Amino acid sequence: MNPRAQLIVEFVKAYSRKYGVSPSYEVIAKAVGLKAKSNVHRIIRQLETAGMVKTRPKKYYSIKIVDKTVDDVVKL
């Protein structure tokens, strides 16, 4: 995972813990220094393909971080 994607994952985790909902793409873009929401969208799609996050189409505040440790415990 590239440093920008890692920064977005960490920001979404922190924001979700603090506010109880995931941030919008606009908030993420401002927080990590991107100029366009489309760049956030592209990175979120890459993270979703990699299995790091889940989103619900056409829903705001729908980014969920996938906790890989839970999946590892379930496999035992």
Instruction: Determine the number of helices (DSSP H or I, runs of at least 4 residues).
Output: 4
SSE order in H/E notation? Answer: HHHEEH
Mean pLDDT: 87
Largest sheet properties: 2 strands, antiparallel
Number of strands: 2
Taken as a percent bin, the fraction of beta residues is 5-15%
CATH topology, which one? Answer: Arc Repressor Mutant, subunit A
Fraction of residues in helix: 55-70%
CATH superfamily: Winged helix-like DNA-binding domain superfamily/Winged helix DNA-binding domain
Tell me the strand order in the biggest sheet: 1-2
Structural class estimated from helices and strands: mainly alpha
Features:
76 residues; Arc Repressor Mutant, subunit A; two-stranded antiparallel sheet; 2 strands
What does this structure look like?
The chain has 76 residues and is mainly alpha-helical. The chain has one domain: Winged helix-like DNA-binding domain superfamily/Winged helix DNA-binding domain (Arc Repressor Mutant, subunit A, Orthogonal Bundle), CATH 1.10.10.10. Helices cover 61% and strands 5% of the residues. The chain is built from four helices and two strands; from the N terminus they run αααββα. The chain has a two-stranded antiparallel ribbon. Helix 2 crosses helix 3. The longest helix is centred in the N-terminal third of the chain and has 17 residues. The protein starts with a helix and ends with a helix. The model has no long low-confidence stretch (mean pLDDT 87).
